[in-house]
Amino acid sequence: MGRLILVRHPPVALAWTGRCYGQSDMGLSRAGRTMLAPLADHLAALQPDMIIHSGMRRTRSLADNLARRTSLSPHEDQQWRERDFGSWEGRGWNAIYRETCNAMDGMVDAPDHFRPGGNGETTCEMIERIRGALAVVPRRGCIAVITHGGPIAAVRHLLDGTRITDIAKGVMPPATFIIMEF
């Protein structure tokens, strides 16, 4: 049996606050950058055997910090990227809500066919992508996966067996992590 450390990246650049950023590749905020060293120290103390990250700048920076503390080489796996929000990417959540009202609830209410932004990834597609990413993670040792809120919620759904309609409850705040046995 293995241990999985699921880590959400630190806060993103302030210009992206309140915006849908999904698979957009922005850096960290000043506060997020100051969290890197203490978070990497905490994660290093858990003695991971492997580091995986999504390849986005906001995950790579933490993976590189952790790698320096553990002498491990981080592995990039783009399957661990955040959900693709389609044409909503980069737009403010308030503007999206004003335009679509409660249509964004479709991510939970219609997980098999609602596409955010009209051309984004359905909740079920994201979960299946994460199922594939999880399938190639070694089942022995301690694996640190530095990723995003959606993928972490998807893993929690897959491993805990929670209802798909409760998936949003599995999204964790930035710069936090959860340890799961798998």
Q: Kindly state the mean pLDDT as a whole number?
A: 96
Supply the CATH class: Alpha Beta
Low-pLDDT sequence parts: none
Q: How many helices?
A: 6
Helix-strand pattern, N to C? EHEHEHHHEHE
Output the structural class. Answer: alpha/beta
Radius of gyration: 16 Å
CATH fold title: Rossmann fold
Find the count of extended strands (DSSP E, 2+ residues): 5
Task: Give me some keywords for this one.
alpha/beta, 36% helix, globular, Rossmann fold
Put the structure in a nutshell.
The chain is α/β, with parallel strands linked by helices.
Note down, in words, how this protein is organized.
The chain is an alpha/beta fold. It has a single domain (2-181), classed as 3-Layer(aba) Sandwich (Rossmann fold). The chain is 36% helix and 14% strand. It contains six helices and five strands, in the order βαβαβαααβαβ. The chain has a five-stranded mixed beta sheet with strand order 3-2-4-1-5, with helices on both faces. Strand 2, helix 2 (57-70) and strand 3 form a beta-alpha-beta unit. Helix 1 (30-44) packs parallel to helix 2 and helix 5 crosses helix 6 (149-160).
Give the SSE map.
Elements: E1 2-8, H1 30-44, E2 50-53, H2 57-70, E3 75-76, H3 93-100, H4 106-109, H5 123-135, E4 141-147, H6 149-160, E5 177-181
Parallel strand pairs: 1-4, 2-3, 2-4
Antiparallel strand pairs: 1-5
Helix pairs in contact: 1-2, 5-6
